[in-house]
Specification:
- By secondary structure, the chain is an alpha/beta fold.
- Helix content is 40%, strand content 17%.
- It folds into 2 domains: 147 residues, Rossmann fold (3-Layer(aba) Sandwich); 85 residues, SIR2/SIRT2 'Small Domain', CATH 3.30.1600.
- The chain is elongated and about 55 Å long.
- The two termini are 13 Å apart.
Length: 243
């Protein structure tokens, strides 16, 4: 199957990759929606909404502080590295990611579209100041919620919370890439979160092919020219070797 995927990627350029939580779980980062995921332990309405943040930012930061500490030590895995290699060799045009961990960039991918924001920084809703991850982690050593260094208001993680719009430029670019793709390679995404879940339909409607690498079924499996039930790291590493 990987050899068939490699042939599809070579023949149906450009290749755009859409990644979800399944690629980062192999770096030790838990997903959100599985039975053992983050939302099984934390109520998203209490910790994951912009309304919750405005109501009690310290409580929300108790949740995010754990993630910031985890992400500051997580490393890109074989899947991230394989995608960066494929991009450098001209076989992947861009990576559209639902993940907020920044591991694609750390692995060496250059064309990355983050449709759900990034945990690599935090911003002040009052004055617009943006603070990098390392400074946020340092601030959390001294306070339950990081203050804005400019005005003192509580910083908000630069991730898209429930109740917020996706960044317009990022989602616009993602749709554009999906429509232009000869093949959209979906990796580690259950394709349940809109509007990103609609990207495979955009590719197919424009005449492109969809390939899916994921553990577990997705609502778009019937659209896939190739469907591989396997882990991201092993599959993408094999793809990079045979491409």
């Amino acid at each position: 199957m990987v050899s068939d995927l490699a042939a599809l990627v070579r023949e149906r350029q450009p290749c755009v990759v859409l990644t979800g939580a399944g690629i980062s779980t192999e770096s030790g980062i838990p997903d959100f929606r599985s039975p053992s995921g983050i939302w099984a332990e934390y109520d998203p309405m209490e910790y994951g909404t912009i309304a919750a943040f405005r109501r009690d930012p310290v409580k929300v930061w108790e949740f995010y502080a754990l993630r910031f500490q985890m992400l500051s030590t997580a490393e890109p895995n074989a899947g991230h590295l394989a995608l960066a290699d494929l991009e450098h060799r001209g076989l992947v045009e861009a990576v559209v990611t639902q993940n907020v961990d920044g591991l694609h960039q750390r692995a060496g991918s250059r064309a990355v579209v983050e449709v759900h924001g990034s945990i690599r920084s935090a911003s002040c809703l009052e004055c617009g100041e943006r603070v990098p991850l390392e400074d946020v982690v340092a601030a959390l050593q001294d306070a339950p919620a990081p203050p804005c260094p400019h005005c003192g208001a509580v910083l908000k993680p630069d991730v898209v919370m429930f109740g917020e719009l996706l960044p317009a430029a990022a989602i616009g670019r993602a749709v554009e890439l999906a429509r232009q793709a000869g093949v959209l390679l979906v990796v580690g995404s259950s394709l349940e979160v809109q509007p990103v879940a609609g990207l495979p339909a955009e590719t197919v409607a424009a005449g492109g092919a969809v390939a899916i690498v994921n553990r577990g079924a997705t609502p778009f499996d019937h659209l896939a020219a190739i469907r591989i039930e396997a882990g991201a790291g092993e599959t993408l590493s094999a793809l990079a070797r045979v491409s």
